[in-house]
Amino acid sequence: EDKVVQSPLSLVVHEGDTVTLNCSYEVTNFRSLLWYKQEKKAPTFLFMLTSSGIEKKSGRLSSILDKKELSSILNITATQTGDSAIYLCASSEGAQKLVFGQGTRLTINP
Amino acid sequence: SAVISQKPSRDICQRGTSLTIQCQVDSQVTMMFWYRQQPGQSLTLIATANQGSEATYESGFVIDKFPISRPNLTFSTLTVSNMSPEDSSIYLCSLGTGGSGYTFGSGTRLTVV
Question: Which residues in chain A land under pLDDT 70?
Answer without folding.
Answer: 95
